């Protein structure tokens, strides 16, 4: 990296901190900090939802899979998310918003105490929080690998530098800072993405999206290749539909922050369209990478995008692309930190420390900022301890994708009126059973059991969790008038009739 590249990167960091300082003036209470007070425009909510859904993992782990296997990574990742979010625009997005507007819910898990009971809420809160801190550690590792590849910065220092900048604007500005930096990062990412696309086109020709497939191995144009089978695809489609419609808690916040259920629906449709189209701009250079930087084997494939950028981009553009990488990770981490702080402050601490319920509004806001700071700090420590290389894909697929289903099923299906008689027994059994199955399969995988493929590791915990939720739920029905009132209130933006309230 040259001087101009460093100026771009440092300037980007200053802009992010500046947004955090400006957003601090818009945060007066925890409703502003966690849900932007329900005042976020639908288009900003949609862009923020999209940006918060992926990170620099795309340019490390997924770039590696695109380099080795080709088209399949778009099919099983971007396509499943785009279609899933489109479905969720009608099923889930408006309901998340109505939880805030009608029930003053500030955390995605807050409604679970009424929907099921407090023990169910606590099981899901602890399981999800532990999963998310490891997931974010993988994001730090991914972006630090990119920083080392482009600029020679050691992984530890890369994590510290990027983490501190993210920590500053997240702690100061809450969800407003997250959303505004998401928008700025979206613009930077667009410039960086098109810069790489045009650089590849200048080398291979403007028709390269069509012609590269004849020069690559035949399997690179297969929709499913390598360990990514139809079983894996179907399981991941269900997981991503649940995950990106609120199972990944920070994405539920984006819907909650919109002014109304209708606005949240528009946000989801915008995010869905972005998921279907924008990753193609980013993936085409990755698919062409074997023709530009051939011979990367094994873990070296994680450096494919780095090597291509160093070879093809002019001064200043490398800094812009690197800032684009940062934007992905910082968007996801800051939004995750915000929602984890919401879960800890609203759902976990009140049951561990009764005094929290008596805190003044100012003290609640201070506690939210302390929790956000602590979560980011812990995830940075885990990332530094991991060493980075090889850690990223294993966490993202083998841990997060495989365990997200069991955690998300009771949370997401609990919003739908069709499952109104499914109670806490089924919910807890679903979470514990699914995670137990994953633990068994993961241990077998570590023992080199050949039958534990990626498809098995991802699909079996999901399937068991779903079967337990549905079978126990319908065999042991637990009807509740309070639950019926809650679910009926989520069907429309209109105020409920007085008789329903009563």
UniProtKB/TrEMBL annotation:
The keyword Phosphoprotein does not apply. One of its GO terms (biological process) is sodium ion transport. It is a multi-pass membrane protein. Keywords: Cell membrane, Ion transport, Membrane, Sodium, Sodium transport, Symport, Transmembrane, Transmembrane helix, Transport. It is found in: Cell membrane. InterPro entries: Na/Glc_symporter_sf, Na/solute_symporter, Na/solute_symporter_CS, Sodium:Solute_Symporter. One of its GO terms (molecular function) is symporter activity. The chain crosses the membrane at residues 6-22, 42-62, 74-93, 123-143, 155-177, 186-206, 226-246, 267-288, 317-344, 365-385, 391-413, 425-443, 455-475. GO terms for cellular component: plasma membrane. It catalyses: L-proline(in) + Na(+)(in) = L-proline(out) + Na(+)(out). It comes from the Bacteria. The keyword Membrane applies. Belongs to the sodium:solute symporter (SSF) (TC 2.A.21) family. This is Na+/proline symporter. It comes from Lentzea flaviverrucosa.
């Amino acid at each position: 990296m040259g001087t101009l590249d460093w100026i771009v990167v440092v300037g980007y960091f200053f802009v992010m901190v500046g947004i955090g300082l400006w957003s601090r003036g818009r945060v007066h209470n925890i409703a502003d900090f966690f849900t932007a007070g329900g005042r976020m425009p639908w288009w900003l909510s949609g862009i923020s939802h999209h940006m918060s859904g992926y990170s620099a993992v795309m340019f490390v782990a997924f770039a590696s899979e695109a380099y080795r296997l080709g088209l399949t990574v778009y099919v099983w990742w971007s396509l499943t998310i785009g279609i899933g979010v489109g479905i969720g625009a009608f099923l889930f997005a408006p309901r998340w918003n109505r939880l805030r507007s009608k029930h003053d819910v500030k955390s995605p898990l807050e409604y679970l105490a009424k929907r099921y009971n407090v023990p169910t809420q606590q099981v899901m809160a602890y399981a999800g929080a532990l999963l998310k801190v490891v997931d974010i550690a993988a994001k730090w590792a991914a972006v630090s690998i990119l920083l080392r590849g482009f600029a020679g910065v050691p992984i530890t220092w890369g994590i510290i530098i990027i983490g501190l900048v993210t920590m500053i604007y997240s702690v100061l500005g809450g969800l407003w800072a997250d959303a505004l930096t998401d928008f700025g990062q979206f613009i930077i990412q667009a410039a960086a993405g098109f810069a790489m696309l045009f650089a590849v086109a200048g080398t291979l020709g403007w028709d390269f999206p069509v012609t590269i497939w004849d020069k690559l191995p035949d399997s690179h144009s297969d929709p499913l290749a390598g360990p990514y089978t139809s079983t894996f695809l179907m399981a991941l489609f269900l997981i991503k539909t649940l995950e990106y419609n609120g199972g990944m808690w920070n994405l539920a916040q984006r819907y909650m922050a919109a002014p109304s259920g209708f606005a949240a629906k528009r946000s989801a449709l915008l995010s869905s369209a972005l998921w279907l189209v924008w990753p193609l701009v980013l993936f085409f250079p990755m698919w062409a990478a074997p023709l530009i930087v051939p011979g990367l084997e094994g873990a070296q494939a994680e450096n494919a995008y780095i090597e291509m950028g160093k070879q093809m981009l002019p001064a200043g553009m490398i800094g812009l692309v690197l800032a684009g990488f940062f934007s992905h990770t910082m968007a996801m981490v800051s939004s995750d930190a915000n929602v984890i702080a919401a879960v800890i402050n609203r759902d976990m601490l009140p049951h561990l420390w009764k005094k929290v319920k008596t805190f003044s509004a100012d003290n609640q806001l201070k506690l939210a900022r302390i929790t956000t700071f602590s979560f980011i700090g812990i995830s940075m420590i885990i990332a530094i301890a991991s060493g980075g290389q090889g850690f990223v894909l294993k966490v993202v697929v083998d841990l997060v994708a495989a365990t997200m289903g069991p955690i998300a099923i009771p949370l997401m299906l609990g919003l739908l009126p069709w499952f109104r008689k499914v109670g806490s027994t089924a919910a807890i059994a679903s979470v514990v059973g699914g995670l137990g199955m994953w633990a068994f399969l993961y241990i077998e995988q570590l023992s080199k059991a050949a039958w534990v493929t990626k498809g098995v590791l991802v699909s079996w915990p999901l399937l068991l969790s779903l079967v337990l939720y549905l079978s126990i739920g319908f065999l042991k029905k637990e009807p509740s008038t309070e639950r019926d009132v809650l679910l009926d209130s989520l069907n429309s933006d209109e105020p409920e009739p007085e008789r329903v309230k009563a």
